[in-house]
Design goal:
mainly beta; six-stranded antiparallel beta sheet; four-stranded antiparallel beta sheet
Length: 153
């Protein structure tokens, strides 16, 4: 039986909120994924497929640039993924305007934004390609503990 190696450039981008809910993009506008945050949240995980640039030890998710939260009181640019070197799920920085995720990256909203609802715009500067066959075999080998997200406090 032969196996096929399917490729996709779809990053499978979605958010996992601190209450356990998953949010998929409401739409894409160019390279920006737009998410509707209908309930207040403190933080979330940015989840995507992963691909290997040069070796399996250096798997990357998506290259993220601008992140902006649009609320009733205006637009607020989030920069923690660009300015803090040690954030769970983010690879080392490659510049001042974008950073790779490792497929599961943590982001916290600033205190002023945690109480509101709005739209989150995430600029995706670069993606895969992603191997779909490899993705399905990786998921089948993972235990339930590896697939579950830690509780965010």
């Amino acid at each position: 039986m032969s196996s096929f190696n399917y490729l996709t450039n779809d990053p499978g981008l979605h958010l996992a909120c601190d209450d356990g809910s998953l949010i998929h993009p409401a739409r894409w506008q160019g390279s920006h994924a737009l998410f509707i945050l209908s309930s207040p949240t403190k933080s979330f995980w940015l989840l995507s497929r992963r691909h290997s640039q040069s070796s399996p030890c250096e798997e990357r998710g998506v290259l993220i640039g601008d992140i902006t939260f649009y609320a009733v009181r205006g637009a607020h640019r989030l920069t923690s993924h660009l300015t803090f070197p040690e954030i769970t799920g983010w690879a080392s920085s490659e510049g001042d305007d974008a950073r790779w995720t490792e497929g599961r990256a943590h982001l916290e909203l600033e205190d002023a934004l945690r109480k509101g609802t709005g739209m989150l715009s995430i600029e995706v500067c670069s993606t895969g390609p992603y191997h779909l066959e490899r993705e399905s075999s990786q998921l089948s080998r993972m235990s339930e503990a590896e697939l579950s997200l830690p509780h965010i406090q």
